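subagent[fold] <- orchestrator: predict structure for attached chain, return tokens only, no commentary.
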Amino acid sequence: MNSITVKAYAKINLGLDVLRKRSDGYHDVCMIMQSLDLHDKITINRTQTEGIVIRTNLFYLPNNQDNLVHKAATLFLQTLGTQEGLTIELEKHIPVAAGLAGGSSDAAATLIGLNQLYQTGLSLTELQKLGVKLGADVPYCLMLGTALSEGIGEVLTPLTPMPSCTILMVKPDISVSTKYVYENLKLTESIVHPDIEAMKTALVNKDLYTLTKTMDNILQTVTVKDYPIISDIKEKMKELGALTSLMSGSGPTVFGIFQNRELAKKALFYFRKHQHYGKQVFLSTPYWPKAEG
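subagent[fold] -> orchestrator:
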């Protein structure tokens, strides 16, 4: 086998709680992650010449070692002990720097693709040990589905799959620094933490209504204050029929959960017409790996 194409799936956070800041500067988190059918495509070709060549459909993406795909491929080849060359074509559809784990997902898909391409037979656990060296979200992006994420994001527990629904995403035309958000998060005694246990129970009961009523993201306490457009999008999504609306990760993408797909389509058309909310608007559905049915 000399070529392979794999998909890299976006993720949203159904719940995101931050428990404490650690002595190493990282934060202990407790999150419920869900992968989406929105995905990038990565095609990997083995070549006769040494070196890794990255090509993308977006001119502003780095095509050198600053790209997580390049870092993932370099790490894999070093682990394998080969200096064989690769050409990797990255077809981006997940918004960049959006809180949807696009870069982490691309890195994870690259590891999966190379594992298949070289027929190395590394297990999911072995791939995750490689992946965490690239970023805290990469182990989850290797597993996919619905999962509880703890530690700095690398301790993963599969959960009951999220009920079927339609998910609308709007990325406002702003940049939000993850570092800034965490540095300005005030974990005071008065702060209200998301009820992750209630969300897990709602998942077990396949109760989308209760799930949406308990979903929350503690990082919004920073971003909504500094970037009111996030709050504006959330409120408009609810007006247009979303059961709930939430920021994903450290932002800035806002997503809405719709039980009625027709309402979701109408909301999609509304946001595409009113682009002051953001020019990148997407409709997707939850994605579950085939092993989970």
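orchestrator: received. Logging for downstream: The mean pLDDT is 95. The two ends are 28 Å apart (CA to CA).
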